[in-house]
Amino acid sequence: MPALELRALHFWEISAMYSIIVIALLSYLVGSFPTSIVWGRMTRRIDIREYGSGNAGGTNALRVLGWQAGLIVAIVDVGKGMLAAALISKIRIDPVALDHELVQIIAGTCAVIGHIWTVLALFKGGKGVATAAGMLIAIYPWAALVCAIIFLAIVLTTRYVSAGSVIATSSLPLVLIVLERMSGRSVSNSFLLFSILIGGLICFTHRANIRRLLDGTENRFRKNSAKKNA
């Protein structure tokens, strides 16, 4: 291969790498915004991680701070995933063309990671469900809708939010395959792989909930502002 072509290829690889790094970092920082912690301190002057389940997510905000706060936190957390996948993924610091869906997946995943391990709260964040939902809305809204229906059906039937979260996210690969057959829209291998990995990640963040579900000791959802047990 001529030296000029090698230099051009090298430049393309470096440029693409810089763009991906910037997108990943910005997405992580957006995902790291600790919505429920900020809202709890602003409205009640409390650290929400010291109340209810101790989790810095929308469900605990709903339980501790009320439905209005829970709704606001959920909307913002969903918005973090959408912002990363829909807008930050378009950032380019060079003219290099990249696979847009793959970049969306990278951006959205970094936002989810930021939400779970937020640098702004000593790496103790939420469980990633709302931010992952926002990412899915930006990339494949029909799949997001089906997973939302599954989530609501499970929660309304069992009153276990954790069960709804785990089952809805774990069913995403099957949802994608079914929608592909029904709509004719092909699902890329990278998106299918992401759906499996994100399901595994959500199961990991809910590992304590899963143990309690299996033991029959998981709490059903109800408003509870009592300080969490040590």
Description:
The structure is a single chain. The protein is mainly alpha-helical and 230 residues long. The protein has one domain (3-215). It has eleven helices and no strands. It has helices at residues 3-31, 35-43, 58-65, 67-87, 100-116, 129-139, 141-158, 161-170, 172-183, 189-205, 207-215. Helix 1 (3-31) packs parallel to helix 5, helix 4 packs antiparallel against helix 5 and helix 5 packs antiparallel against helix 6 (129-139). The termini are far apart. The relative contact order is 0.13. Mean pLDDT is 87; it is low at 3-9.
The structural class is: mainly alpha
Name the shape in a single word.
Answer: globular
Query: What proportion strand?
Result: under 5%
Rounded to an integer, what's the Rg over CA atoms?
Answer: 19 Å
SSE order, as H and E? HHHHHHHHHHH
Q: What average pLDDT do the residues reach?
A: 87
Runs with pLDDT <50, length 5+? 3-9
What kind of oligomer do you see? Answer: single chain
- The total domain count is 1
**Can you summarize the main beta sheet?**
none
| Secondary structure tally, helices | 11
SSE inventory with pairings:
Blueprint (H helix, E strand, L loop, with lengths): L2 H29 L3 H9 L14 H8 L1 H21 L12 H17 L12 H11 L1 H18 L2 H10 L1 H12 L5 H17 L1 H9 L15
Helix pairs in contact: 1-4, 1-5, 3-4, 4-5, 4-6, 5-6, 5-10, 6-7, 7-8, 7-9, 8-10
Task: Name the features.
single chain, 230 residues, mainly alpha, 70% helix, disordered N terminus
Question: What would a concise description of this structure say?
Answer:
The protein is an all-alpha fold and 230 residues long. 70% of the residues lie in helices and 0% in strands. The termini are far apart.
